[in-house]
Amino acid sequence: ALMLSRELGDETGIAIWLINLGLLLGLQKQNESALSHFQEALHLTRQSGNRASEGAALLNIGNVYRNVGNYALAKAQYLESLKIAEAIDDLRLEARLRSCLGTVYDIQGEFRVAKAFFQDSLNAYKKCDDAFGQVEVQFKLANLCLKDNSAEEAQLVAEEALMAAEACSFHSFEIRLLWTLGEIALVQNDVSSLNFYAIAAVRAVQYE
């Protein structure tokens, strides 16, 4: 399909395939090759004027930089992509980018900024009715609150997310949220932490 797109001069089609190939390379930890594919895709999307694909390419370039610890460049790519998402009114892309920015600031220990990005991301996911995105961001937010010594807030967020994860059968997040609730209970000196850990372990086996 990639060769056919090249033969037809379909720049958007080529860019999409390059992004997909870059994602596969990223999963294999081949960051330099992935970055090269994403950058080539970015060049093609700019030539073709496809703003949605340009935003996606920038998002993935940012992810590579984040994975290798270059947080300044990661944030720069995310912010550039965010401007595009806002310009073309792509709410789902905007939600993803705000979540990614929150993650970078969380890693850097800037919890207040991270929390603001996560809240904005959560609101955007709610507007586009993306249940998985909501649970993912709530999981991040609960863990951030826990690190920021806000155990009660972390508990409220995690419990809400767990209910949604169970209702939608998001098993991976269900297990991770149970574990997070165990950590929260442990911080609060609540013996129920062992119950959360045990349930998480049982469900991990159950969902294998």
Descriptive tags:
single chain, about 210 residues, mainly alpha
Q: How is this structure best described in words?
A:
The protein is 85% helix and 0% strand. By secondary structure, the protein is mainly alpha-helical.
Instruction: Give helix and strand order, one letter per element, not per position.
Output: HHHHHHHHHHH
| Main pleated sheet | none
First-residue to last-residue Cα separation: 34 Å
Q: Fraction of residues in helices?
A: over 70%
Number of strands: 0
Decide which structural class fits the backbone: mainly alpha
Radius of gyration: 19 Å
The low-pLDDT segments are: 1-5
What overall form do the CA principal axes indicate?
elongated
Query: Proportion of β residues?
Result: under 5%
Number of DSSP helices? 11
**Which whole number gives the mean pLDDT?**
92
Oligomer category: single chain
Summarize the structure in short.
The chain has 208 residues and is an all-alpha fold. It is built from 11 helices and no strands.
Layout of SSEs?
Layout: H1 2-8, H2 11-27, H3 31-48, H4 51-67, H5 71-87, H6 91-107, H7 111-127, H8 131-147, H9 151-168, H10 171-187, H11 193-206
Helix pairs in contact: 1-2, 2-3, 2-4, 3-4, 4-5, 4-6, 5-6, 6-7, 6-8, 7-8, 8-9, 8-10, 9-10, 10-11
